[in-house]
Amino acid sequence: MDGCTVEGYQSDITRTFVLGKVPEKTGGQMKKVFRHRASSTGRALATARPGAECGAVDAAARKVIVDSGYGPDYKYFAHRLGHGMGMDGHEWPYLVRATPPNSRPT
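The chain above was modelled as a monomer; its predicted structure follows.
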């Protein structure tokens, strides 16, 4: 886990970066994939509202990835979109399709 612990609460963060120089041959593709990933995060944030189902937030982000040609479904975006934070770094609710339908972010 990346992040820190403050008064017993965990943080978590995802980072995307390149070590060294971006290869000229693949740099354009890398930037394209990064933009799609950033767009999927934006769609998830726009969908995540009080009362929204966790699976719906994951589906919104996943649709951007699939519509960008990186599908189907979980083929290239295999990890869950996100999870709750608290005393354990990876705790309920989980932002993924398999989350029970009545689970909602708080």
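The chain has two helices and four strands.
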